[in-house]
Specification:
Radius of gyration: 18 Å
Distance between the termini: 31 Å
Helix content: 10-25%
Shape: globular
Structural class: alpha+beta
Oligomer: single chain
Number of helices: 4
Largest sheet: 11 strands, antiparallel
């Protein structure tokens, strides 16, 4: 799906929520929002001259590092919504991008902020902003869907996580970069929760991507409940590959 409209520094995509993106309560699934966000981010970056195709020529690629999604009023099946995104500039190694999904009434239903890095496709290491000068033309205006950048998330030290299964990285998990797509980690994490907990409406979702995973690897999943939040961490050979926090 291509964004239908550019409004100054923002891009807009009008969407009718399809049946394959909803849960048992007919609400947009958190992982489905991430699918929508990464698609509009692709088109926005492409139109601004620093999309996948441009970076790929230079053997580099965008990788999502952190994200915070706030669900104010999750849209339902067949709701007519408008998804906006805009680039907010750089902060250290991170490039910041926000999202806002407006309901049919024009009020924010979902807001999000994300932090991205550029990696070398061959070495898989970060590419520093100073090494990208001339490649990334950063035309942006600061506006906030969520003012604070997505935070670092770790498992609470005063709790003991319990094993919650494992997932072998498979064909359906992998994207064009050759590693697990970011939205798939949310699917794994929510599937690792008790079904009645996963089905509760989420207020805030925070996720950090710490290490990429690829086909042939098996991710061990651990979960921990603290107060009214669930944490899920995925590990490969004892090393964290992602940490997710769900506030209800």
């Amino acid at each position: 799906m291509k964004p239908v409209c550019r409004e100054s520094y923002k891009f807009r995509q009008d969407i009718s929520i399809p049946c394959y993106q909803i849960d048992g309560a007919a609400l947009l699934r958190p992982a489905a929002f991430m699918d929508l966000a990464q698609e509009i981010a692709y088109w926005a970056a492409r139109e601004l001259g620093f999309g996948y195709d441009t970076l790929h020529i230079h053997h580099t690629a965008w990788v999502l590092s952190r994200m915070h999604i706030h669900f104010e009023n999750s849209p339902k099946w067949l709701d007519e919504v408008s998804l906006y995104t805009w680039h907010k500039g750089a902060s250290g190694l991170f490039y910041l991008r926000d999202f806002e999904l407006l309901g049919a009434d024009g009020h924010p239903a979902v807001t999000a902020t994300s932090s991205w890095v550029v990696i070398d496709e061959q070495t898989r290491r970060f590419v520093r902003p100073e090494d990208l000068q001339g490649l990334l033309t950063l035309d942006y205006e600061v506006a906030n869907a969520i003012a604070e950048p997505a935070p670092k998330i770790v498992l609470p030290k005063d709790g003991t996580p319990e094993a919650a299964g494992e997932h072998a990285v498979a064909y359906s998990d992998v994207d064009i970069i050759g590693h697990t797509n970011n939205a798939r980690y949310v699917v794994w994490a929510m599937d690792a929760l008790p079904p009645e907990e996963a089905a509760r409406p989420v207020k805030d979702l925070y996720i950090n991507f710490n290490k990429e995973t690829t086909p042939g690897e098996t991710v061990q999943l651990f979960r921990l409940r603290q107060d009214n939040a669930w944490y899920v961490e995925g590990r490969v050979d004892g090393k964290s590959c992602f940490v997710l926090k769900l506030d209800y």
